[in-house]
Amino acid sequence: MHHPQNAADIVVIGGGPAGMAAAIAAARELQKSGQKGRVLLLEQGPRVGKKLLSTGNGRCNLTNRSISAKNYHSSGAVAAGRLAQRFDARYIENFFASLGLICRTESEGRVYPYCGQASAVLDALRLELDRLGVECRTGCRVSGLQTKRGGFFVTTSEPPLFCRRLIVAAGGRAAPSSGSDGSLFPLLKKLGHSCTPLFPALGPVKTDPNLTRPLKGLRCVGQVSFIAGKRAVRRESGEIQFGDQGLSGICLFQLSRLAGEFITQKTAGGAPCPQAAVSLDLAPEYTSMQLTAVLQRQARIRGALPCGELFTGFLAKRIGQTLCKLAGLPLTRPCQQLAEGDIVRLAGLVKDWRFPITGVCSFDNAQVTAGGLPAAEFCFETLASRRVPHLYAAGEVLDVDGDCGGYNLHWAWISGLLAGQSAAQSLFSHQTSKEERYDSRV
What's the number of CA atoms in the CB half-sphere (13 Å) around residue 101? Predict the structure, then answer.
């Protein structure tokens, strides 16, 4: 089949993980069918896969061996969870094995490239794109989308393109320096799609800086809870980091999606939430009664020493002193003079230290975007649009976001592979009509 320079069978917008996976799957499917189809990948940044290089602290947490719907959120959570179980970690490992990339499984079921380098993942993807003859155009910003009989006009800085199938994998708004700035959403709205509110996820949680600034730079291990009203909605454990403006650490990142939902919509998990806070439990191994006994023993041991030393040997000194101040205790008061009520109050703070949620990080500091194209507007068997014929979507552009631990990359891979394969199969599932042939007037 003759392909004019400004025409392609399939155009993929977005050179991130989902876009590269979609282009590979589409090209493989076309090759498998014996058709000489043309797949074109458009990336507005200077190179493909820039964001991929920073994932997993540069090690690229590809997927996770334990995946279910509970690891995903937003309107597409259930559908994404089903797909993730259908196309599980083994499926992704086999895909990368076909690219010559070897993987290994580490703690908590996290799967990484064996060499521990995200650059190896990107190299494997780029080599396969080259082998399949996928043309990658970088520095190519899409400024317009228009439906055309049998396909689409795609307006870029270069002459307009015509494509028979269009796959949108341009990401959300998180980490805009990597190339995903949300600029495609207005164009998709013009085609007939809607968009749920966008907000940052997997990032630090902001609180009253007066509470965290004195502890800036400190880290401790504990349990964190998202408190919606008077109810704990979600709990996570791990390292807690105190910052200038709020709280950080992976366990806080896991709660940040709820914090973003609260800030933007005054809901938590879809339920009304007029007020929200993060609760720290710095001694999750102890019950309140057991901790009270421990602190009473500490008070006896410290004796005439000031109560600022009560937590020495148990918690970081600055944290212990801060808790004493919050309990209204002068740091100079001798430990042996602490009343039973003082000890109980201190134990209560250690088990339930509240920080009101005042905001979340910016998109610049978020790992993913919550919100996007609603799941109801797409068929999750193929990821084809229910509103716009011949349009497919994959990755973060859809209203699906996951937890830390490889779940977001897993979604990018499987949604990209499914969208690419489905788009290619649709080209040859029935005899091409006159409407779907290339328009030489483009």
Answer: 27
